[in-house]
């Protein structure tokens, strides 16, 4: 049996007695959880948050009742861990919101522009209201659907869509005021 071919529900049932199944869940979901943590607490604290999240998931595997999707439960735990981290200490500057894919053909000017843009987006995100930042991060960094975000945050679907749209508009305005005009839909 190839664990990577199993659904989250199947892996969860196996993970209660099989460490390899739990490791498969970690491999599947850790990149998104890390991206979310990085967007909310900064790169320096993201690894600690991810470790805390998966430790909490492991401790509470027996309590998962399969009433919601695993990813919804996981992201709620991740948000709670991020908020705990933020309460423990001041937020660090967010960096590396997206992996930098460096092409040997990419010029130093392009790399510098990308770095500057990433810093501007980070600063703009820090200025968003927490509800908007949370919804935007879940959508853009974790790739969750609006319905999943509504379930995680406890907000109505329309409220989630509104928060994300307001966050995008605020970031677009922030970037434009600093001389960067995003083309098309704002994605980070």
UniProtKB/TrEMBL annotation:
GO biological process: DNA-templated transcription initiation
SUPFAM superfamilies: Sigma2 domain of RNA polymerase sigma factors, Sigma3 and sigma4 domains of RNA polymerase sigma factors
GO molecular function, a single term: sigma factor activity
A Pfam family: Sigma70_r4_2
Source organism, top-level taxon: Bacteria
Gene3D superfamilies referenced in this protein's UniProt entry, alphabetically: 1.10.1740.10, Winged helix-like DNA-binding domain superfamily/Winged helix DNA-binding domain (1.10.10.10)
The UniProt record lists the keyword Transcription: yes
Domain RNA polymerase sigma-70 region: 25-90
Keywords associated with the record: DNA-binding, Sigma factor, Transcription, Transcription regulation
DNA-binding listed as a keyword: yes
Domain RNA polymerase sigma factor 70 region 4 type stretches: 119-171
NCBIfam families linked to this entry: sigma70-ECF
Family: Belongs to the sigma-70 factor family. ECF subfamily.
PANTHER family given in the database record: RNA POLYMERASE ECF-TYPE SIGMA FACTO, RNA POLYMERASE SIGMA FACTOR HI_1459-RELATED
Protein's UniProt name: RNA polymerase sigma-70 factor (ECF subfamily)
Organism of provenance: Deinobacterium chartae
């Amino acid at each position: 049996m190839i664990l990577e071919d199993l659904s989250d529900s199947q892996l969860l049932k196996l993970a209660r007695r099989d460490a390899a199944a739990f490791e498969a869940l970690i491999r599947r979901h850790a990149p998104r959880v890390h991206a979310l943590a990085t967007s909310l607490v900064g790169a320096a604290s993201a690894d600690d948050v991810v470790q805390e999240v998966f430790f909490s998931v492991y401790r509470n595997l027996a309590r998962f009742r399969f009433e919601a999707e695993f990813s919804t439960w996981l992201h709620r735990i991740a948000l709670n861990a991020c908020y705990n981290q933020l309460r423990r200490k001041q937020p660090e500057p967010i960096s590396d919101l997206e992996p930098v894919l460096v092409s040997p053909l990419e010029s130093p000017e392009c790399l510098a522009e990308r770095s500057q843009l990433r810093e501007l987006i980070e600063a703009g995100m820090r200025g968003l209201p927490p509800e908007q930042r949370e919804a935007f991060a879940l959508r853009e960094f974790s790739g969750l659907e609006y319905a999943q975000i509504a379930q995680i945050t406890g907000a109505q679907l329309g409220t989630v869509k509104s928060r994300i749209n307001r966050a995008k508009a605020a970031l677009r305005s922030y970037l434009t005021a600093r001389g960067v005009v995003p083309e098309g839909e704002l994605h980070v």
